[in-house]
Design brief:
protein dimerization activity; 70% helix; mainly alpha; HAT C-terminal dimerisation domain-containing protein; HATC_C_dom
Length: 318
């Protein structure tokens, strides 16, 4: 693939009819035949091979939370090992590849010059080896570790572990009354009163003897199916506190997804030209942009009617 790509770029550079593309193509060819390009390419490949298994498990609809969390811990360990012991093998692999394709390898002990072309300036206190090892290799790995620690901190991990006690797979093997009670007490204190917390433990004891034995609630795989099954056979009214907790757990993926979408949309809505936008107006715009499917159901007439219902208006919009 590399040989074919280089051949195509060379043909474009030599083609006189494509003069407008020649400059960009020439720059692209210089980039993909540089040592830095192949170093970063091999480095990314090494990281992706470590975290790919974790990504596959997290995207699995029927993932086992406890095993997924074990995989998170293992991934952190492997990335840390790459940081401590992976530099020399990676550099050797990149060097071997560059020798195979006659790509110039820089002297790692030479001074590093930042920038490109006539804008390059030499930094006497930084060598090229230092630049690749610390400014690229180490910083990128630390960024990955920081991201994993941020997404799977102690608070989040504990929440997921306690939530897994409601998992109905394998004959409710993960069911633990103490874990479920602690889930409600620690993470949902505003959703259960003190009296409800006391009653929840006794309700869970009845639930443990009843629900796993019910024919229609056996062989289900997800908490979502459990919630639907409880409602279908009327158990949600018998165990309302457990049903409430299950519904709260089901909102976890939605709440995190909405938060991510909000931050992504913020970059679109609040631009450099709109940086004085107030929080309330910004929040209203974010809701409209994020919940497009819901907003599309509103008609102009209904919006005007709602506008008129707030107070009397002098202007006639209809």
């Amino acid at each position: 693939m590399f040989d074919v790509t280089c051949s195509i770029l060379k043909n474009i550079i030599k083609d006189k009819s494509s003069y407008s593309q020649r400059g960009d193509t020439d720059a692209a060819y210089d980039s993909i035949t540089s040592f830095e390009f192949f170093f970063i390419l091999h480095f990314i490949q090494e990281i992706m091979r470590i975290i790919d298994n974790l990504f596959q498990v997290l995207q699995n609809q029927f993932q086992d939370i406890l095993n997924a969390l074990d995989l998170v811990s293992n991934t952190k360990v492997l990335i840390q090992e790459l940081r401590e012991c992976g530099w020399d093998p990676l550099l050797e692999k990149v060097t071997s590849f560059c020798n195979q394709y006659d790509i110039s390898i820089p002297d790692m002990n030479a001074c590093y010059a930042a920038g490109r072309g006539r804008f390059r300036h030499q930094q006497d206190h930084i060598t090229i080896g230092h630049y690749y090892r610390f400014d690229i290799f180490t910083i990128a790995i630390d960024s990955q570790l920081q991201e994993l620690n941020s997404r799977f901190n102690e608070h989040t991990v504990e929440l997921l572990i306690l939530s897994s006690a409601l998992d109905p797979r394998d004959g409710y093997r993960s069911f633990k009354i103490d874990d479920i009670y602690n889930l409600a007490d620690k993470f949902y204190p505003r959703d259960f009163s003190e009296q409800e917390n006391i009653h929840l433990r006794y309700q869970l004891r009845h639930y443990e003897l009843d629900v796993p034995q019910h024919p229609e609630l056996q062989n289900i795989l997800t908490i979502s199916e459990l919630c639907q099954g409880l409602a279908r056979i009327g158990k949600s009214t018998i165990y309302p506190l457990v049903d409430r907790l299950i519904r709260l757990v089901l909102t976890l993926p939605i709440s995190t997804t909405t938060t991510k979408r909000a931050f992504s949309v913020m970059k679109i809505v609040k631009t450099r030209l709109r940086n004085k936008m107030k929080d309330e107006y910004l929040a209203n715009n974010l809701v409209v942009h994020i919940e497009k499917e819901i907003i599309e159901k509103f008609t102009i007439e209904s919006i005007i009617d709602d506008y008129y219902s707030m107070k009397e208006r002098q202007a006639q919009l209809q």
